[in-house]
């Protein structure tokens, strides 16, 4: 259905009526959009190089130093004054606003790492002389992407399992519920620590392991909704029409469960981001060197003499999570039948 | 002139806020003297319930508001009264009985706690003193074995008994005004009659005034002294019951009075039955003990035989819990059952889902609740066309759309309705959509499960008329399940009367109505006539 049906139109209006959530959504989308283009904002390669009459795009393509008249066939180090001078001698280059990649080490720093904020490093450097702002932008992106991936994947599995349990009921439901009870009782953190001993967890490993346990969150609500819906007359009518179970689940029952799902999603997202951050903080998360908010927090804790580390991580997390919670609240309002359908009492 | 007990002047009620405010009730004037019964009558949506709820100020404020008017109880203004004062009145001077006995009682409280609460709050009674009063009240509302039932929970009582408990709670503090909002609508006819008698007796004994809200004119005629007829938020006529009923002045009142379904179904030629059922049983196991062993069965449907011929209506009558709906679901194979179901000469009782699917087209159903039987997120065209898609009727979406529109036209709806969603339609229109969804497949048999019960009387007769027309045009066979004997009589050629899962009596509708043989049928008919 291309057009928004009247209920959804009213929900959208209700969502916009919550000004805080509405602005939070925009702010979050802008921040997230910017961080998706992190390579163009914070990078140790220039965006465009004009050299010797030719155009080069180092952000997208790797060029050996010899291209610009250097000595080594390895990739050009554009931050190296020698290379910069070579290019400037016969052309020019445009840099991103922040001339650091998340793993760029600022060898030119005048103070010892971690260095305090300066004109060169706006938020200072961390204890390995890497630019905090660059790491922050990349860390924000990876946090949100991880959160989104985990939320979408666990919602899909959770809704599917909840739908099957609720719609068919009986034995499937009974065994499903018992399984989930046992599964939810497993200590996730210990499992992660044990797993971290076997494999070096990367993004996908972590996502997979977290997914194993996070899908259970939505099962309860979706199952309850389906248990209610399956006895509705319009579901019975569909069965009497000969509509197959799969179609009934998707077409007639699922829309009812979507309200609960969509309302829950922003909160699952914040939960996922927090989980990743805390794992990184404890050192069981992303591999060493990855830009991550948790790792930044851990650095802040280890370097109390450099408060910009801890404060930066704290404010980033606080603002990001607050925005998501505000969006979640607005979504919850939008799906609240008492607000959306107000004025129809009697 | 003395001041009346209740005086409502120029009352207006609006819902919503700001520019979205919709006036729902306007310019209502009512007065009620002590010891008098005033009935508020009207079809659904006429504003009778919210008018009544505005007396104890129980509307969802601030969503609801009173742009104008006053409500005075004993000369005291209630609109704008303090919450503390209103709380003292509610359940004290003002007693209330609601429609649904199932949901009006807290399922987790015993009767003693339930009734005792109001005594404790309003009279500050100690538990011991309250206990005697509770027994007295339960005896007053004629609940059998009152003193033994103090510890009973609501689910251990029948619908009628629960309504008696509700009444006991309402009269516990000797109210001067009792507001009864459709107190008998959810009950079976035999029990309706008892509750009405009880309310009349109590009113006389306790000298209460009663505001009685109902859509059922027969009930009103029996119990009220005066009647006010409401239409679209306005009182269009009020006066003495006899005067209003014998000489209605307003056109709407006349319409309400003449809105009984009448007529008889057209005669049908003899033919081979389209459906014949032999010894149908639906037994639900009752388990008990540590091992959950089956020790007995709840026999919802127990050894039912019936046949329906093409073009014929078989009425299935019974009170709630008699198994008539379960029977309908079993015939549609939506409820597993044992026994033989011959549909067009073929036993369908053992078919699996897949082989049953082609037959679904010929075996359709219309449910009771027009609000629940249509998926709220689908447009009318999608709802009606869904079955066409399932059974591969029509070449493409355009042709299916045309067929769906054709079916809508056939049930008397404007085809433009196809674009709309169910919540934009009235109850009667929705029920027509449900009928269209069934007939678009050109079925042979339709199970009609209380299709008229949720509708207003005037809409009921239109639907009955429509169903009869469709039947004679397409030679449809109907199984018409209902507790409403008037509608059954207007629809059915033959009928069966069910009680506790068994068929008590079967025969031609005319014979069952004029000369019932079974004592249960006789009682049922007597009760229905008594309230009529």
From TrEMBL, chain A:
InterPro entries: MetI-like, MetI-like_sf
SUPFAM superfamilies tied to this protein: MetI-like (SSF161098)
Keywords: Membrane, Transmembrane, Transmembrane helix, Transport
Membrane topology: Multi-pass membrane protein
Stretches that traverse the bilayer: 21-42, 142-168, 180-198, 204-222, 259-286, 306-328
Domain ABC transmembrane type-1 span(s) in chain numbering: 140-332
Subcellular location: Cell membrane
PROSITE patterns, alphabetized: ABC_TM1
Coiled-coil regions listed in the entry: none
Similarity section: Belongs to the binding-protein-dependent transport system permease family.
Full protein name: ABC transporter permease
Species this protein is from: Spiribacter onubensis
TrEMBL record, chain B:
Entry similarity comment: Belongs to the ABC transporter superfamily.
Species name: Spiribacter onubensis
SUPFAM superfamilies: P-loop containing nucleoside triphosphate hydrolases
Record's keyword annotation contains tRNA-binding: no
Keywords noted in UniProt: ATP-binding, Nucleotide-binding, Transport
Domain of life: Bacteria
Protein name stated in the entry: ABC transporter ATP-binding protein
Protein's UniProt keywords contain Nucleotide-binding: yes
Molecular function terms, GO-annotated: ATP binding
NCBIfam families: PRK10419.1, PRK11308.1
Lineage of source species: Bacteria, Pseudomonadati, Pseudomonadota, Gammaproteobacteria, Chromatiales
Start and end residues of each ABC transporter domain: 6-257, 277-525
């Amino acid at each position: 259905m291309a057009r928004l049906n009247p209920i959804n139109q009213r929900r959208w209006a209700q969502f916009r009526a919550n000004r805080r959530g509405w602005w939070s959504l925009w702010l979050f989308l802008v921040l997230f959009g910017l961080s998706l283009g992190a390579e163009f904002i914070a990078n140790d390669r220039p965006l465009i190089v004009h050299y010797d009459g030719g155009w080069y795009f180092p952000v997208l393509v790797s060029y050996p130093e010899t291209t610009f008249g250097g000595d080594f066939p390895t990739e050009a180090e554009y931050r190296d004054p020698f290379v910069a001078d070579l290019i400037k001698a016969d052309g020019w280059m445009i840099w991103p606003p922040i001339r650091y990649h998340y793993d760029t080490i600022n060898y030119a720093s005048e103070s010892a790492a971690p260095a305090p904020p300066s004109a060169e490093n706006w938020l200072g450097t961390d204890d390995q002389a890497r630019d905090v702002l660059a790491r922050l932008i990349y860390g924000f992106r990876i946090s949100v992407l991880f959160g989104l991936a985990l939320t979408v994947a666990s919602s899909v599995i959770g809704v599917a399992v909840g739908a099957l349990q609720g719609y068919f009921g009986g034995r499937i439901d009974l065994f499903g519920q018992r399984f989930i009870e046992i599964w939810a009782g497993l200590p996730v953190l210990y499992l992660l620590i044990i797993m971290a001993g076997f494999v070096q967890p990367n993004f996908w490993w972590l996502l997979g392991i977290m997914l194993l346990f996070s899908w259970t969150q939505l099962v309860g609500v979706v199952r309850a909704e389906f248990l209610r819906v399956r006895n509705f007359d319009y579901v019975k009518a569909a069965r009497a029409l000969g509509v197959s179970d799969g179609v009934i689940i998707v077409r007639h029952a699922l829309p009812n469960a979507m309200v609960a799902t969509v309302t829950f999603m922003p909160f699952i997202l914040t939960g996922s981001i927090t989980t990743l951050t805390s794992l990184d903080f404890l050192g069981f998360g992303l591999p060493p060197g990855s830009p991550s908010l948790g790792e930044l927090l851990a650095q802040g804790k280890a370097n109390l003499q450099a408060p910009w580390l801890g404060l930066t991580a704290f404010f980033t997390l606080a603002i990001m999570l607050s925005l998501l919670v505000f969006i979640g609240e607005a979504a919850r309002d939008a799906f609240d039948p008492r607000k959306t359908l107000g004025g129809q009492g009697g | 002139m003395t001041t009346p007990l209740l005086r409502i002047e120029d009352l207006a009620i609006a819902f919503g806020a700001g520019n979205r405010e919709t006036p729902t009730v306007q310019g209502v004037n009512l007065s009620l003297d002590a010891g008098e019964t005033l009935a508020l009558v009207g079809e659904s949506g006429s504003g009778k319930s919210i008018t009544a709820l505005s007396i104890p100020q129980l509307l969802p404020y601030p969503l609801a508001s009173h742009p104008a008017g006053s409500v005075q109880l004993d000369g005291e203004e209630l609109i704008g009264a303090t919450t503390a004062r209103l709380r003292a009145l509610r359940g004290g001077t003002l007693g209330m009985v609601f429609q649904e006995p199932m949901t009006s009682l807290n399922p987790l409280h015993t009767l003693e706690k339930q009734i005792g609460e109001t005594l404790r709050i309003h009279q500050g009674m100690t538990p011991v003193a309250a206990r005697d009063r509770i027994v007295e009240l339960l005896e007053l509302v004629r609940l059998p074995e009152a003193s033994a039932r103090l510890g009973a929970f609501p689910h251990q009582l029948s619908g009628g008994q629960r309504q008696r408990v509700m009444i006991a709670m309402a009269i516990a503090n000797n109210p001067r005004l009792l507001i009864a909002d459709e107190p008998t609508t959810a009950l079976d006819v035999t029990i309706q009659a008892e509750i009405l008698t009880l309310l009349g007796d109590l009113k006389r004994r306790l000298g209460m005034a009663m505001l009685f809200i109902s859509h059922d004119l027969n009930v009103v005629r029996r119990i009220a002294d005066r009647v006010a007829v409401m239409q679209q938020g306005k009182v269009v006529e009020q006066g003495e019951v006899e005067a209003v009923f014998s000489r209605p002045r307003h056109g709407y009142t006349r319409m309400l009075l003449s809105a009984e379904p009448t007529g008889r179904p057209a005669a049908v030629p003899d033919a081979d039955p389209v459906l014949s059922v032999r010894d149908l049983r639906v037994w639900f196991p009752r388990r008990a003990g540590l091992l959950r062993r089956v020790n007995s069965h709840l026999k919802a449907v127990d050894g039912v035989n019936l046949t329906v011929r093409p073009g014929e209506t078989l009425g299935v009558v019974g009170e709630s819990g008699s198994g008539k709906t379960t029977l309908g679901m079993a015939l549609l194979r939506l409820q597993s059952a044992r026994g033989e179901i011959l549909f067009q000469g073929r036993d369908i009782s053992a078919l699996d889902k897949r082989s049953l699917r082609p037959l679904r087209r010929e075996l359709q159903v219309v449910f009771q609740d027009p609000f629940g039987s249509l998926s709220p997120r689908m447009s009318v065209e999608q709802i009606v066309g869904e079955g066409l898609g399932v059974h591969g009727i029509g070449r493409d979406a355009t042709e299916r759309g045309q067929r769906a529109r054709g079916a809508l036209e056939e049930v008397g709806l404007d085809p433009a309705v196809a674009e709309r969603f169910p919540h934009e339609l009235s109850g009667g229109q929705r029920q027509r959509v449900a009928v269209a969804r069934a007939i678009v497949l050109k079925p042979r048999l339709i199970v009609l499960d209380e299709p008229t019960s949720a509708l207003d009387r005037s809409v009921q007769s239109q639907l009955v008329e429509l169903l009869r027309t469709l039947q004679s045009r397409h030679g449809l066979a109907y199984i018409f399940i209902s507790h409403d004997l008037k509608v059954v009589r207007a629809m059915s050629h033959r009928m069966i009367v069910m009680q506790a899962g068994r068929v008590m009596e079967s025969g031609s509708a005319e014979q069952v109505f004029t000369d019932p043989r079974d004592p249960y049928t006789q009682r049922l008919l007597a009760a229905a006539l008594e309230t009529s």
